[in-house]
Amino acid sequence: MMIKEWFKSGSPWVWLNAAAVSTSIILVVGLLFLIAVRGLGHFWPADVVEYHYMDNGKESIMIGELVDTSVMSAKMAKESGYKLQDNADTLVQHLIKTGNRDILGMDFRWIQQQNIKSERLPKELITIERREWGNFYGRLTAVKENGRVIATGEKVWTAVQSRIDRAHKIYDEIEHIQKKQIGAINYRLERLRLKQRSLELKGKWNEELAKEQTQEKSELAKEYQGYQAQAAILYKEINRDSILAKDSTGIEKEIPLKSIVHLIRANNMGVFTKIITYFAKFGEFISEDPREANTEGGIFPAIFGTVMMVMLMAVIVTPFGVIAAVYMREYAKQGFTTRLIRIAVNNLAGVPSIVYGVFGLGFFVYILGGNIDAIFFPEAAPAPVFGTPGLLWASLTLALLTLPVVIVSTEEGLSRVPKSIREGSLALGATKIETLWRTVLPMASPAMMTGLILAVARAAGEVAPLMLVGVVKLAPTLPLDGNFPFLHLDRKFMHLGFHIYDVGFQSPNVEAARPLVYATSLLLVMVIIGLNLFAIGIRNNLREKFRALEGM
């Protein structure tokens, strides 16, 4: 009887719900912890191990970082064709990141524990992170200047440090000249070409305009030549220095300092130095552009593109969602048609996202964008301006995808505003639109923000529709820059979700890309959390502001 009464009291269901919620929270936190450990651990300066092992009966040397360890049962090992020594119960294998892809042809190699004769951590071993061909592991032998050896032996490490800093500064200057200054000149030249073509189509092009444009092009050409001359001088300076390094097989390779991102001796670094290096590498991951087919370098363009697209989507979806909800709740006659519309809105929330992508490609890009090009940008033909996937169409597609969420949330908020508030406002002489604008909408604003939070959370993680309407593997320029009109809605952009898909499933080097998949996934979660916290903060402020009115 007591158990029956206990079940009737509802206590078991309370405890069951609490257990389910607790389990879900533990699983989510555990998943985030796993992603964080796998992703953030990639930036820690790992020790470089020198392995002496037997390879086909011959003793060989391998240098690299220990990445992973696999344990296989004896039965499974024999079935896979491996030979076990001394009747061992297990076969232990280590995944070693050997780097030196330009010499060895591969970055990673599996090695069996039973074949390892010895392991050492020589302090002179170096790790070179390069702009191309991945990491290089070996020993530093010499420093060269203009093809002449200037330092060997113990003086090599001291001589190379200041020269690397100098090479980095010059490299940054060259990047600034090429991307910012020369890029701006090329953009202005293209605008002049389009302006001329537009005037020609309108029949307004004449000799006076031609002279003005010729003069302007001449001035731009002088600027261009000046920047090219500066870049040529910098190229000569950055090509001055190089180093000589030997790999595990004894092959000596010359590496220009301009191609080196980091040069460290991890085995000779203390904990404090490793921490500094760790944060420096993580900062570069957030702030730099990707390299090596997105498997190295940073992901700043993807972060920027994700945040920019979500902000544009929020600006577009909020007014349309609020207007639709206000009309259906405050103005539309409540009947069969209105109920049918609500059912349609609720069903739209369940439509697969790829369907929205196909609609966006067909309607926004080809129909709307094609007509915009024909009417406003005929001079750009046959190259499309808005008749191609871009930031604007991606934002509109996601706004359409998240519109039902905003409509439903706003309607719920409007329905919770007491009828007495409306009647009191009208009794004081306010019109219906004034009552709506000054009283009802402010009180329903927390519900609007709730809808926006849900929309942001869904839009930031969507990938499938974006693959059709604007996202690319690598965008050469950001949608926002210093060239008029500054925000270029027609440009393609990078996205964290697509970046994860591309690196994880399209990369030619799976092992090198794996830690970046974890790191990018964690960063995407943090971006979504940050955007949501910003919207939640606004919603809470609005809720506190109108709490007194809501309680009436």
Structural class: alpha+beta
The number of domains is: 3
Low-confidence stretches: none
The number of helices is 17
The sequence of SSEs as H and E is HHEEHEHEEEEEHHEEEHEEHHHHHHHHHH
Helix content: 55-70%
What is the tally of beta strands? Answer: 13
Average of pLDDT: 88
CATH first level of the largest domain: which class? Mainly Alpha
Largest sheet: 6 strands, antiparallel
What distance lies between the first and last C-alpha atoms, to the nearest angstrom? 45 Å
- Give the radius of gyration: 31 Å
CATH topology of the largest domain: MetI-like fold
CATH architecture of the largest domain: Orthogonal Bundle
What amount of the residues lies in strands? Answer: 15-25%
CATH homologous superfamily annotation of the largest domain: MetI-like
Q: Oligomeric status of the shown chains?
A: single chain
- What's the overall geometry? flat
Question: Topology of this structure?
Answer:
Layout: H1 2-9, H2 11-40, E1 49-55, E2 58-73, H3 74-79, E3 90-97, H4 101-104, E4 108-112, E5 116-120, E6 125-130, E7 135-145, E8 148-152, H5 155-202, H6 207-238, E9 241-246, E10 252-256, E11 260-264, H7 271-287, E12 290-291, E13 296-297, H8 300-331, H9 336-348, H10 353-376, H11 391-415, H12 419-427, H13 432-461, H14 466-469, H15 496-505, H16 510-545, H17 547-550
Antiparallel strand pairs: 1-2, 1-5, 2-3, 3-4, 6-7, 6-11, 7-8, 7-9, 9-10, 12-13
Helix pairs in contact: 2-16, 5-6, 8-11, 8-13, 9-11, 10-11, 11-13, 12-13, 13-16, 15-16
